[in-house]
Amino acid sequence: MSCAMRLVLLGADNSHAEDKDMRVNLAFNVFGEGCDQRMPRCRFGFFQIVNNNYEGWGTYAIGGSAAPTILSQGNRFSAPAEAIKKNVCLRTDAQEEEWKKWNWRSEKDTLLNGAIFLASGVDPQLTPEQQGGMIAAEPGESVPQLTNAAGVLACVAGQPC
Known about the structure:
This protein is mainly β. It has helices at residues 96-99, 128-132, 143-146; strands at 9-10, 23-27, 30-31, 41-43, 46-50, 53-55, 62-65, 69-73, 76-78, 89-91, 104-107, 110-112.
């Protein structure tokens, strides 16, 4: 599997406060060899990252700025061999005293090869809209089976994929 340096960017930039209303589910993906970062990178908003398979990363797997709420649920994180790259998360554009208040939670995730998910904030109180849009998370151990058919779509312009 080939990959790229920067994969999924959600939110325009730190000045686009209107992105606070964004609600995103990122589910059932495989991020493999050669994937470096932004799987995803989140600005503002509410993000459920559910049942994805992370087979290592270069810089980080999940990143964010501008106080996004991130729920990592039932993902499988297999950290790279390098000790300095074990942390799944990267928070940017904020001092530690600020990002420690951001609501980043890990539930049912499987952390392999020394992977670390540093949670912050508190368990968020979900709005009815957020709760209604959630995908039920299977345990991280189930991810290889859930994502075994994941891959690039073979689409043709003008036809359904």
